[in-house]
Amino acid sequence: MRQVIQRIALAFSLIIKVVVLNAMVTPCLSWQGETAVSSEQQMAKGIVFVDSNHDGKLDADEQRISGVRISNGQSIVMTNPQGEYNIPVSDDQIVFVIKPRGFRTALSEDNLPRFYYIHKPAGSPKLRFSGVAATGPLPSSINFPLYPQNEPENFKAILFGDPQPRNLTEVGYIAEDVIPEVIGTDASMGVTLGDIVFDDLSCFTAVNETYGLLGIPWYNIIGNHDINLDVKQRKYANETFENTYGPSYYSFDYGNVHFIAADNINYHVDPTDGRSKYNAKFGQQQLEFIKNDLALVPANSLVVILMHIPLTGTIDRQELYRLIEKRPFCLSISGHTHYHANKFIDQTDGWNGDQPHHHIINVTVSGSWWGGNPDERGIPHTMMKDGAPNGYSIISFDNTNYQLDFYAAGRPKSYQMNIVFPDEVATNKMVATDLIANVFNATSQDKVEARVGWEGDWHPLVNYNGVSPLYQEVAQRELLPDGRPMLGAPNETEHLWKLPLGDLVANAAVGHHLVQVRWTDRTGRTTVSNRVLRVVESKEVSSTTETPK
Q1: Which of 117, 123, 169, 321 stands the most exposed, by the fewest C-beta atoms within 10 Å?
Q2: Which domains are seen in the chain, by residue range?
């Protein structure tokens, strides 16, 4: 009888331990064992497996996966033939699996990838926005479940730059202005390129719930408005982000593309005035991770590096250049600036690759921080600083090839430019008046032409750097009660083209004329936009207001 009681007591004790451990399990992984590893050993270990019954736990009959990469944010190890790994970990570190091709990780209810284990025995310090709860001693086994999925070489990803809602009202703007357009998307994933929110980190929850409605995995890059601004040490700046999304830098595979999610927000407190500041820097530990990561990526894979602040403004970018400039297929994408641009980094910036590096600064969901007069829905028009509309992009991959498409929020896909010239032009003013085309996603390598009518000759426009005249006009027209503009200062852009109207319609008769502008991108795709020009006798000029159509 005593033995039976002892056995029952022992079984009950084991059940209690399992319950306690399981209570700590997040949807991203499971960890098992009767005893935790002592803090002195600090060696994380576990198993990567196919979670065939979708319960998040390793069962005896479930397949273990070899050759899967595991990282602690610096070093990388691979699972052995039994799917096992061992990796050192400190008392403030995140262990994560690098998702291999043909598998997905677990997902939260809002479709956030759960691919990590946070080891913070004491948890985060007291913060305005909650960080990570105390995780206690390192578990004896940190297991990562994976789920097989088909990953073709042809797939799409949605890119959101700077949604940046400062409150639930602006989360509502996103929900009405952008989300309905991408419901039912055939994209395989989505990415927010930083500034997920605007300093109020409590908005993470509402944002995640909103994007979760799309039904696809959604990855997140940390931005300068996604950090804990009430801390005094860099090591604590990402606590709330980590609690919500996991590590601030990581990588994963999809199809033949290797994605690196980078963190170039270098938060610090200025010792002279005690103010919280930031600049753009990767740091040595992250660069070591990227170096180790790329060493395991085949040369024939396309590498896409995602970050918040543009690469050209990052202090230690030269060190990253050395890691990627010899790879034949590499692309990088950022946000932050609130304008859209295609940059080609070359030797003038220290790039030593055979071909310039393509860096995309992505259109922002929030445009100019949700500024400007509201439309009929009550949503600000929020034109970006380059005169382009707010919106998002979709990037299509085909093995190592890619194509980025610009989508203006609330507009048809065909809206790829605004064409600016006066509402009416007098016959004697043609030569002095320019047609200006702001082609939102164009590069300096593209061609823009214009013609009059359906059969007129095409005339090339000249590409130039400048300020959007439309943005200037709107900013001057939309003023706050104190006289300040609702929109900020404009930014020079490289996607403007111009042509004197006199070169196009020098002998046009008085009346209305169709003007067509054709954009041919560097891949040969063409897009045509139309606008009507009204020609009047010189004495009939009544307005020269520049308004896009």
Answers
A1: 169
A2: 25-128+136-147 (2.60.40), 157-408 (3.60.21.10), 417-540 (2.60.40.10)
